[in-house]
Structures are given as C-alpha cells and as structure tokens.
C-alpha cells in the first residue's frame, strides 16, 4: 500500500478509535487475541484457529480440490467452527476487497442472480480490485470506496435489513482472506 494511502486510512481510523497496522508481521498473534476469526478454511489458518481455541466462521474455497470444504465440514461437526457456504442468489459484502481474490471467488459461488458489494478504501488498491474483477469477468460485483465511517453506517443498515428479512448472509471483514473480530 502506498504510504499516502496508509496515512489517509490512519487519519480516518484514528477519529473512530480504530487501530491500523501497515504490516502485521506475526498474524498468529492477532489470531490469538481475536474473539472470532472469519476466514477461508486453509490448513495453516485452521491450525492457528485451533491452536488458540478461537471461535471461527469458515467460508471454504469450493475448488479446485475439496480439501477446504472437507476440513470446514469436519470442524463444524466437531462444534469448533461455523461454516458459511454462499449460495446462488446471495448478497454478500466484502468490506476489505482488494486485490479481489475473495470477491471473485464469492461472485462465482453466488452466480449471476447474486451481488457482491466489494469495498476498498485505498484508491490504488481499488484500481487493482477493478482490474482483477474485470479480468475475471464478474458482472455481479459492485465496487465502492467508502470511508470507514460511511462503511460502518452502510453495513449497519444493510445488516439490519438482512437480519429482518430472515435470510442467511455472510460478511467478510477480511484482510488477506482473514478477518479478526
């Protein structure tokens, strides 16, 4: 991330009491401190979740192998993780979307009848997100560049509407495919 983008995010976040780190050299320490981890079901991430006994919500990669799906399902059976499998037609918010791997993965899972709202606060990272979404050909992705304050307000409103609808939904507050709550 460009230094100017990082500085802008720092100034926005500071007024809301949010801590921003430029690099998280030991992500495992963040997992250890998290109340809940939202992640794909990769081997290393799941090992960290289990080692630190963190609550988790897993969104397994659908392919190319069934490894993540099998791992996530077994953890759900054991009662140590919740598993979300986005289905065709779902509406999904990817609130830290660049470079776009999670966004395009979700877009392919929910299909043309669903929508992924992909937010990225950094202008330079938003350009990369656009390039990757365009390259992938995801016609069901809408990108936004909301500030942290505007994003929180929009997400709160959207979550309230989705909860009152009675439908399931998933929200990925991820950074590098992992969200720490």
- Strand proportion, as a percent range, falls in 15-25%
Rg value: 16 Å
Count the strands? 8
CATH class of the largest domain: Alpha Beta
Name the CATH superfamily assignment of the largest domain. Vaccinia Virus protein VP39
Topology as a string of helices (H) and strands (E): HHEHEHEEHEHEHEE
The biggest sheet amounts to: 4 strands, mixed
How many independent structural domains?
2
Question: What does the average pLDDT come to?
Answer: 80
> Ends: how far apart?
22 Å
Strand order of the largest sheet: 3-2-1-8
Shape annotation: globular
Indicate the topology:
Elements lengths: L2 H12 L12 H7 L2 E4 L3 H9 L3 E4 L8 H11 L4 E2 L7 E4 L6 H10 L4 E5 L3 H14 L4 E4 L3 H18 L5 E2 L5 E3 L1
Parallel strand pairs: 1-2, 2-3, 4-5, 4-7, 5-6
Antiparallel strand pairs: 1-8
Overview of the molecule:
The longest helix is centred in the C-terminal third of the chain and has 18 residues, at 148-165. The protein has 181 residues and is an alpha/beta fold. Strand 1 (36-39), helix 3 (43-51) and strand 2 (55-58) form a beta-alpha-beta unit. It is built from 7 helices and 8 strands, in the order ααβαβαββαβαβαββ. The chain has helices at 3-14, 27-33, 43-51, 67-77, 101-110, 123-136, 148-165, and strands spanning 36-39, 55-58, 82-83, 91-94, 115-119, 141-144, 171-172, 178-180. A 4-stranded mixed beta sheet has the order 3-2-1-8, with helices on one face. A 4-stranded parallel beta sheet has the order 6-5-4-7, with helices on one face. The radius of gyration is 16 Å and the shape is globular. The chain folds into 2 domains: 28-85, Rossmann fold; 87-174, Rossmann fold (3-Layer(aba) Sandwich), CATH 3.40.50.150.
């Amino acid at each position: 991330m460009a230094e100017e983008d990082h500085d802008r995010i720092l100034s926005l976040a500071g007024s809301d009491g949010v801590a921003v780190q430029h690099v998280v050299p030991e992500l495992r320490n963040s997992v250890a401190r998290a109340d809940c981890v939202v992640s794909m079901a990769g081997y290393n991430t799941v090992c960290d979740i289990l080692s630190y006994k963190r609550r988790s919500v897993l969104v397994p990669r659908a392919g190319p192998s069934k490894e993540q799906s099998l791992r996530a399902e077994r953890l759900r059976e054991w009662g140590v993780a919740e598993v979300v499998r986005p289905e065709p037609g779902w509406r999904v918010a990817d609130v830290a979307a660049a470079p776009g791997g999670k966004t395009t993965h979700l877009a392919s899972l929910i299909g043309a009848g669903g929508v992924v709202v992909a937010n990225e606060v950094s202008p330079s990272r938003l350009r990369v997100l656009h390039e990757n979404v365009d390259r992938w050909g995801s016609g069901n992705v809408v990108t936004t560049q909301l500030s942290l304050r505007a994003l929180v307000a929009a997400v709160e409103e959207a979550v309230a509407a989705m909860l009152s609808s009675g439908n399931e939904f998933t929200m990925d507050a991820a950074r590098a495919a992992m969200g720490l709550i």
